[in-house]
Amino acid sequence: VSNSGVSMYLSDKLYNVGSGIVCDNWIIETPYIEESLDGQSFGSIAFVDMLGNELDNKYPKGWKWSLYYGDLSWPFADFKQVSSGIISEVQRNNHIYTLSLKNNDSKLDKPILTDESTMLCVGSCFNFEPILINGATLQYRVNNGAVSFIDVYDRGVLLNSGVTRDLADGTFTLTNAPAGTITVIASTASQSLESAALRLAQMAGYSGINWVNVSAARRAYVAGLVVMADGETYRSALQKIADSIGAYIIEDANSNNLT
Question: pTM score > 0.90 for this model?
Fold first, then answer.
């Protein structure tokens, strides 16, 4: 298990990793790792803290974990990696610790936004309602960040005047109160399906995304996804993009990439 350059090595037998690192036989039962139908691995591992509450000081919730198997006679470089991910929970009973394990795919289950005054316009988005962030000044938000353009409609009629746009901030302000529902068409710089998916993957903490078995023409399709603070997760957002081209998503636990 590791975090920010700090690593702890646990083993079910005394083992010399090398470079002065020796694994104490702290693990007291075989690690339980299982994979669900949607590709997420989960499980637990229990061990004794021989140093006396040492783990309490480090508190490894959220730390990365990697599970390897091998033989005492093997050099550590020959051990095979079984899985990897993050520690979701830590429980202690006296000196017995139990770590709840999830793989990297669990990062996709986090909500993208939690602040109701924020929203994301990923790619080119049509006919959606912006967020009114200042009722006194009639200021609206269409994206948490810069957009390339904003077209504003009042009851379906394009407003050619009475609108002040701040494209760098992803907002606009009306001069007069609207007659009806305000809707917009807006776009960010990255409009392709692949670019939109890559942005979401990077936000989720993945190093990248690569659509395979998808033609170049389909990659060039314009993508649009509006994300609100309504519980939308990275998984559901990426799945919407994948569904739009008949693709599916696979998480590589070892490379930290999405395919």
Answer: no
